[in-house]
Amino acid sequence: MYLDNSGTLWLATRNGLWKEDQGTWYDIDGFGEVGAIYQRETGTLRVGAEDGLWYQQGGSWQKLEDFNYGGVSAIYENKEGLWVGCKLGLLRRDENGWKIIVEEEEENDWWCQLNPRL
Predict the structure, then answer these.
(1) CA-CA 20 to 30 A from 108: which of 17, 70, 72, 100?
(2) pTM of the entire structure?
(3) Largest CA distance in the chain
(4) Residue range 55-64: average pLDDT?
């Protein structure tokens, strides 16, 4: 679960991405299994799914084209860059592009979720 800056509650599930609005849950089309949700300081939502990393632009969702590392299970951003946990391991994207920080020899999912508002 993720509570965004506007007070909207989002839910990442094996059956996709869900959004709560005034007590009603809505399935967001286009997602398979979702493993992570994160909101940037700019307000942009990022979603980690089985097919990669997505971001919300206006009213639509766009796939981050330079991320080709598989399913995403964790997203975090700080001054060092965008951190992503996935089946490959732990990656970081900064001004130089993607870098593998920890690579797993076995297929595992890295995950964590930090949201002090929940």
Answers:
(1) 17
(2) 0.82
(3) 45
(4) 91
